[in-house]
Design a protein that fits this description.
The protein is 15% helix and 30% strand. The protein contains five helices and 18 strands. The strands form four sheets. Strands 12-13-14-15-16-17-11-18 form an eight-stranded antiparallel β-sheet. A four-stranded antiparallel β-sheet has the order 5-6-7-8, with no helix packed on it. Strand 16 (239-250) and strand 17 form a beta hairpin.
Length: 354
């Protein structure tokens, strides 16, 4: 895990004036909105006895601890301790860490790190969010492995005819070869454009909406540090964009939060149908991702064997390795821990219509 980046920590629609706990980066945070609707983020741990502030309540844009009623401002400073005498000073250590927040692209973003504002990496661009020709909906699901494995799976093109042979990958098995491609610098990330040749017409939902003669697919796959992927897929008549934030809960749990755009069938009532289709695909990926050992992508490039089609994943490993070596890591840089157990947990998915 990396510090000094913006982390999309929750869908905007799920953050209200009721304190909400999220677990990310092996830590607990509390999110809520003040009276002006601005999102606030701070550590979800009272410095007094460690109670979760998210179990407390809001009072004049401050949050009260549910245990002893300590009252904290939006900047994390405690301003009232009910048990203290009226003239007793508030201890200097009565403080909760608060974090810079942005609201963008349907997410609440939290900056975790110690860089000054002018030096912070930007939130990656997502022009599709403002594109009126694209319909969007939100989806999330859990994978029981480290986020690095989930991220790499999202930018891996060569697994389509194998893992997804019974879904959208049908037809690519006759020509599984991945032609050499160029990895492009995207600023805090990399991308590659790849053409997948299919011998079959579209299957599943897409045979009803694509109305095309073949299922040849042009895909631009992009990753951005620390945990974002974007897959832009297009063919003769359709465009699909899959923007994903691979939310690192802890070393063995990832919640993949996605915005799914499509240029066809732009009806909100159909989003559940598409969510069911995508959930099937992600379940296929999860079985493989959760089986990988070690659970974390290895720090050393030579720890696993690479071929030409892995160029984009190798670029990700090199860039991640660079910032780990700079001291931006929140994990031991020379260890790759396996998942806590080898079991596959049921997939959890929730569709949120914007």
């Amino acid at each position: 895990m990396l510090k000094n980046f913006w982390y999309a920590c929750e869908f905007s629609t799920l953050v209200t004036n009721q304190p909400k706990q999220i677990v990310m980066l092996n830590q607990r945070f509390v999110l809520y909105r003040n009276a002006q609707g601005q999102a606030i983020a701070m550590n979800d741990q009272c410095p007094h006895r460690g109670a979760a502030l998210s179990a407390g309540w809001l009072e004049n844009d401050c949050i009260r601890c549910p245990y002893h009623g300590w009252k904290f401002q939006e900047n994390g400073q405690c301003i009232h301790i009910p048990a203290n005498a009226a003239n007793a000073p508030v201890p200097k250590k009565a403080y909760v860490e608060s974090y810079p927040v942005q609201e963008k692209y349907g997410f609440i973003w939290l900056f975790y790190g110690d860089l000054p504002e002018a030096e912070r990496p930007p939130i990656p661009p997502l022009p599709e969010f403002e594109d009126p020709t694209l319909h969007r909906f939100f989806l999330d699901f859990k994978v029981n492995t480290h986020y690095t494995r989930v991220l790499e799976n999202s930018i891996d093109i060569s697994h389509l005819p194998i893992v997804h042979a019974n879904s959208f990958g049908a037809g690519f098995g006759d020509n599984p070869t991945v032609d050499d491609y160029t990895v492009e610098d995207e600023g805090w990330g990399m991308s590659a454009t790849i053409v997948s040749k299919s011998s079959a017409k579209p299957k599943g939902l897409f045979k009803h909406f694509a109305r095309q003669e073949s299922a040849d697919l042009v895909s631009k796959l992009t990753f951005y540090l620390p945990n974002i992927t974007k897959v832009e897929s297009s063919s003769k008549h359709i465009k699909i964009v899959n923007y994903a934030v691979h939310f690192p809960v802890n070393d063995t749990t990832t919640i993949s939060k996605r915005i799914l755009f499509r240029s066809f069938f732009p009806y909100a009532w159909s989003d559940r149908m598409f969510a069911k289709y995508y959930t099937k695909i992600y379940a296929e990926d999860s079985v493989v991702s959760e089986s990988q050992y070690p659970g974390t992508v290895p720090y050393n490039l030579s720890a696993e064997t690479h071929v030409a089609s892995d160029a984009l994943q190798v670029a990700y490993r090199k860039l991640r390795q660079k910032y780990l070596a700079m001291g931006w890591g929140l994990e031991p840089v020379h260890s790759s821990l396996p998942s806590s157990n080898g079991t596959i947990a049921p997939l959890s998915a929730t569709a949120l219509v914007n």
